[in-house]
Amino acid sequence: MSACTPGSRTQFLATTQMAGGSEDREGWRFLEAGRIPLMPGVTRVYFETGKTWTFACAVDWPGWCRRGKGEQQALDTLRAYAPRYTVVAGRGAISTDFEVVGRVRGNATTDFGAPGVTGAWDDAKLPPAEADRLAGLLDKTWKVFDNVVAKAPAELRKGPRGGGRDRDAIVEHVREAEHSYGPKIGVRLPPRTSWKEQRAAYREAVIAGMPGRSWPARYAVRRLAWHVMDHVWEIEDRSS
To answer: What is the value of pTM for the model shown?
Structure first.
């Protein structure tokens, strides 16, 4: 399957930001009204392309986002991880029938190795039911992370060059990263706030639509969930 399939059913809805920030205003009118629901059997995907990496991310499934050298490799990797993402989404909930809804130009964060750019789909209206669904998926990624950490050995297999954090260092990295995201999602917590309390505060912020945030709620959930699942899969791969 080509990453740039002609005649894609939802491709005309995309807001493309790859040519000087120009936008498809026709697609934006649908997006700003929140009139693009989840489509059974179809997974909406966008590409974020930097100088080094391209990310393929599922718009509606936080945490299901993988990178590659170019669109096709990124999409192939996303497809390959579909079975592993079912621990979050549930069996039969997701599809590898991908619809490309847009492209955004990456930045330094993209090239560092993290999805760092929002798209017009992130500004779509967030109904309460969808906010609850996203909060539930984020909560599920945390539970998966905790379960994987509990089963992993303290010392993980090193990479080809002998690098890579061990289990407890990864846990601390994820906790600290999530704490640093607080101001971006409109949540400010004391330095000694427990991770459990921090997660609960973030979950409530998602349900409330993240008032006072600088990151759109949809993007914030996707970024949080991506970071969690990226390290879930790292721990799993390096535990064998």
So the answer is: 0.83
